Amino acid sequence: MPLAHSTTPETRNLQRRKEASFTQVPSVYLSVYLSICILIQEPEEGPGAIAMAFFITLSLCSVLVVGMGEGGTGSEEGVETECKPGLPPPCPSISPSAQPWTHPGQSELFADLSPEELTAVMSFLTQQLGPGLVDAAQARPSDNCVFSVELQLPPKAAALAHLDRGSPPPAREALAIVFFGGQPQPNVSELVVGPLPHPSYMRDVTVERHGGPLPYHRRPVLIQEYLDIDQMIFNRELPQAAGVLHHCCFYKHQGWNLVTMTTAPRGLQSGDRATWFGLYYNISGAGFYLHPVGLELLVDHKALDPAHWTIQKVFFQGRYYESLAQLEDKFEAGLVNVVVIPDNGTGGSWSLKSQVPPGPAPPLQVHPQGLRFSVQGTRVASSLWTFSFGLGAFSGPRIFDIRFQGKRVAYELSVQEALTVYGGNSPSSLRSQYIDGGFGLGHFSSPLTHGVDCPYLATYVDWHFLLESQAPKTIHDAFCVFEQNQGLPLRRHHSDIHSHYFGGLAETVLVVRSVSTMLNYDYVWDMVFYPNGAIEVKFHATGYISSAFLFGAARRFGNQVREHTLGTVHTHSAHFKVDLDVGGLENWVWAEDMAFVPTAVPWSPEHQIQRMQVTRKLLETEEQAAFPLGGTHPRYLYLASNHSNKWGHPRGYRIQMLSFAGEPLPQNSSMERAFSWGRYQLAVTQRKEGEPSSTSIYNLNDPWTPTVDFTDFINNETVAGQDLVAWVTAGFLHIPHAEDIPNTVTVGNGVGFFLRPYNFFDQDPSFDSADSIYFHEDQNAGSCEVNPLACLSQIAACAPDLPAFSHGGFSHN
Ligand SMILES: [Cu+2]
């Protein structure tokens, strides 16, 4: 759909055109977003010419671009654009793409590695590790290969010394994960390489970080390993059951109409590498996830030589077999009850291609006076907030050095892990416990589609990575940054008693977003910054549900969503690291709640009333500050400095949960320790460089001997006056239902938490917002001098400069 404004003037129907009249805008910047409704009219003559009309509900006039206030990002001053008859002037220049680095600055500390840096590390490793290194894209289990290279985050003390005290920046380093399949004792090694951009040293940190070598069976599965498994399934195994598969599933030579889907964990005990693969119809252009054919294969792929891989068990439409050959024998003997699964192609209701023609365009937010924030490299700055953003290849989105009005409130705010735990009556649904960080929340980020995943005029930023490859690759538009008018008052009061006035503030938020597409599911990750000093962290789930072949007592495990498809019950949860620094590094943990206390009525002591009181407790130890899921927790939990605000209260930031998490896996499960963070809705621990993350990428393939067990972090140390990290779990139970077809919607499927100032300030800092509106009865609210909203009709009558639609592409892997 051509959204561009390159249509001829004749095709534009501008309503309510008015003579240009320039009015001086009262100082600084005006802050109102404007919804412009772009209507696409049906062509009257022939289908080829779509006439486009901009119905701008405001009059046309000149545009004044005013420099933004201190800390703001506007630089032009007083640029005036006169109206041209018949055409609205273009809105002030908006750069839809981020500014590249112009000079190394503060945010470079946390910036993900550039393509040049990734290339330099890879060349250095190739040189150091010798000629036996194989490209991970083609590596077999018995090869040596570089699995990943990403930023090694700097130690916090060194980072702060640089940021706060002007010390030289810490060396910029990379962390490389190398698979040594070709060594006598195959293992995984972690190497720190530095300094960038010209590496000269390499340090093996495996033993220091993990207490010993990393067993080879814990390594993530390479894409090449999946390809080799597919090769084995389709070329060697499926032909052995050609008869039954032809009967049930329209099988033809080597099963081109089928695809496999992996599960995890891969076995039942430490050392196993045996994965149940489900088979699905390969539906082109739509999700295969909803089309199980009822065949699942347990593949043992532990051997270093793929020729030695075997099928250990076969599940077919409710029964287990020793092999595909045995299934075929029983089928030929008439002993298999085959359900024929229709393969009705791509035209079905599950396709994401709507049958409905496009209608009028939805509302669009524009920036009538230009962007009010900047993105330089990975540093975002608005008049209120500054922070750096990035994407861990495995751990996902993260934000550093977060400052409100110039003062740091948090050092790090990062996703650690995403987990889905399934139930079901087929082996692959029963065996599905996905610890997604092991696949890579950054690795599987997807390009953001302008106008769907983020506002059309958001600022989009690419992400570079080096994973399972010898050369860096790019996910275009992996991040978006935008400011959004939520259409909600952040605060307001209309007074009609004693004195007559209105005061209010529109809620505008600054958002950084990325999306991880983990096979079927898409997780939308948001970090949202509010003008009152609050931060919201939230994830939404969308995409396809995971499903299973429907048989037997299926409804105990979910809802039927198609003729042969069961939507299987599961929980989604995510774990977050919240390294708050509330007024400095040393913080305390306070718990507050309420209680009713029976009290004699002071003026009539023979009567009793229930009096509500505040309960207030300073938590001393990590044990006291760990709150199990499902248990009670104080409604107000905040981290505070030992400095007080004007009213004598400790300056704090409250962690307010928004979560409907399902039950965690019972602790007697042999793999629960791999995601023992799920036991806690919230836990506060001392911050330690040696405890950088609550999880490990190796937990996915060996959950029975977890490389990181979060409960180890909680060991009764004091949390009083320490540098603290709050670890937060947010999640929800998902019982898939008919409306999850074709896709789960984000509506109602979003959870997370808020970080909110609690006595941190002396009053609400949004009072000082330049967006504030106030007028009283003696004033003319329609006057631009009194009310900035009244200036909109003069300043905001411009045509948004919409860049041509673009998409980040499909082939980053
Ligand atoms: Cu779900």
Automatic annotation (TrEMBL):
The keyword Calcium applies. Residues 219-319 form the Copper amine oxidase N3-terminal domain. Topaquinone (TPQ) is generated by copper-dependent autoxidation of a specific tyrosyl residue. The keyword Disulfide bond applies. Contains 1 topaquinone per subunit. Coiled coil: none annotated. Its cofactor is Ca(2+); Cu cation. PROSITE patterns: COPPER_AMINE_OXID_1 (PS01164), COPPER_AMINE_OXID_2 (PS01165). Belongs to the copper/topaquinone oxidase family. This is Amine oxidase. The gene is LOC101389904.
